Amino acid sequence: MKVYNTLSKMKEEFVPLVPGKVSMYVCGPTVYNLIHIGNARPMIVFDTVRRYMEHKGYEVNFVSNFTDVDDKIIAKANEEGVTAQEISERYIAECKKDMEAMNVRPATTHPLATQEIPGMIEMISTLIEKGYAYNVDGTVYFRTRRFKEYGKLSHKNLDDLRSGNRSLLVTGEDQKEDPLDFVLWKPKKEGEPYWESPWSDGRPGWHIECSVMAKKYLGDEIDIHAGGEDLIFPHHENEIAQSECCNGKIFARYWLHNGFLNIDNRKMSKSLNNFFTVRDISEKYDLQVLRFFMLSAHYRSPLNFSAELMEASKNALERIRNAVSNLKYVQEAGAAGEMTEAEKAQLAEAMEFEKKFDEAMDDDFNTADAVSAIFELVKYANSNVKSGCTAAFAGAVREEIIKLCDIMGIIAEEKEELLDAEIEKLIEERQAARKAKNFARADEIRNQLLEQGITLLDTREGVKWKRA
Ligand code: AMP
Ligand code: ZN
To answer: Is the domain 2-258 a CATH 3.40.50.620 member?
Structure first.
């Protein structure tokens, strides 16, 4: 599997630190509002990377934070006259709803910056002890020039940065030793949330949060660190400086960055009136359409959002879903028994599309080509799986399409909800099976119901059930 590494600006063979395992950190959103469709891109893209890695057999430890202390959160809290915590809790809950609707799986851990302050104080203390940071009147700065490799991710040269940053010297930041130095800890202002520290009552800078959360939940060295390309500089560059100076080890081996999402070829912004939240889109479309749209392009390319492209994605997704639903119909009407020899040969042909799919994904997660491979399979199914074939053949092709879609987090077949009457009937059948000591059948029914999100409770008054 090859991945493009922003560090080397090359596609590299992916070799994890521990065979069979992947540790991955993705910078999450700052929670002061509903997430916008730009924020949805890294969520969808890196969720797909995670799913594909799992398909390849890796165990993935996926960590993605919520930045829940920030100027924008505080401003919003003041605007509404509520606490910053109320704002961040509200928008974390809303963000999780959007993630679920986009079929983005929850991370293994979603740490919150405000819950990790002791770790941040510890890392800042270590950086001061090692001479990489200094305190001026309660503000702690990182001594950027002390880290000789600064600029290695963004491929920037320190002296160019310095001339570009000269203006900083006249904007009130003259307490810094060098304009390139950045904040690790800052004192509170009136009315702001704060924590006690050896330097001042205050709060951490944004960059230190991610270094600390990655260290705590994944370790000093991690396989993959990811986020949108706007984070390369300064956020990720600063994370590298903090982590590598503190831990004395290479921080992340592969740095992955998604390209930006634009609207009708312009930058999305509130002032241009072309700003959409994920929730706005959900009023018009099933969010699976948004996911499909995002995956129709390579994750590193800029992506243009427009009404026409969303319509095209909607139609494309429908084509896949129609094919799956036709296959189900053919399967239900299909002949029982083993596949014929001719069908076995055809199924082997159909499986070739999975190879194409894997090849595309192995090439730096080329989801655009992977989607094409799914379409080729759909086309193949439409012309080769006809009524009169065996149920086994139609079923195998149908499951193959569902499986490839699922690797991308695309739901090709909605689970049909069981009606209450159907559930009751299955429960009766299970009771009868138990009476007849046919425990295998009874368990089978329990599992079938469980798959549909229905749990059974055996009580003294009889069997009760509830939906998940
Ligand atoms: P933020 O809440 O601004 O820190 O952003 C959270 C994530 O969304 C980061 O990984 C950003 O790089 C990413 N992001 C923000 N805007 C866009 C956009 N227009 N297109 C793609 N990614 C974006
Ligand atoms: Zn981060």
So the answer is: yes
